[in-house]
Design a protein that fits this description.
- By secondary structure, the protein is α+β, with helices and mostly antiparallel strands.
- The chain is 14% helix and 34% strand.
- It is globular.
């Protein structure tokens, strides 16, 4: 049975089974919520950007990284386990349900998919990555 999560917020970092074509991937990963659509509330759709802990020191057009040594406050607010980069060229709209999202290890915010929140110091980096991704 599919369960729908309560409304998230843009800027939340969540535990997502980011899909490969139309199927959820078995390995969940961090995703950054860019927008929340409430047209079918209480069933929400979210626009998420793909996150990975691979090659975080090499950024390409449309990417931003949260690196512990470079911005400890942002890393702590995101509640990440590893340095992570988000790719704003890999963005999808997904139903905010148990089909695509799950509770992260340690459940830092209780029994919801939220890992953490984007720190205000990262807003400009997200804006720059978004501009680069749409060019």
């Amino acid at each position: 049975m599919v369960r729908w999560w309560k409304e998230p917020a843009a800027g939340d970092i969540v535990w997502c089974h980011f899909p490969d074509n139309i199927h959820p991937r078995p390995k969940p990963r961090p995703a950054l919520i860019l927008a929340v659509f409430d047209d079918d509330a209480p069933q929400f759709t979210v626009q998420v950007a793909y996150g990975t802990s691979q090659r975080t020191t090499t950024l390409y057009r449309g990417e931003l990284a949260i690196i512990r040594e470079m911005n400890a406050a942002a890393y702590e607010a995101a509640h990440l386990s590893f340095d992570t980069k988000f790719n704003l060229r890999q963005v999808l709209e997904l139903p905010f349900s148990t089909d695509w999202f799950s509770v992260p290890p340690g459940a830092p915010h209780g029994q919801i998919p939220k890992l953490g929140t984007l720190h205000p110091s990262m807003v400009r980096a997200v804006q720059a990555a978004h501009r680069a991704a749409v060019e």
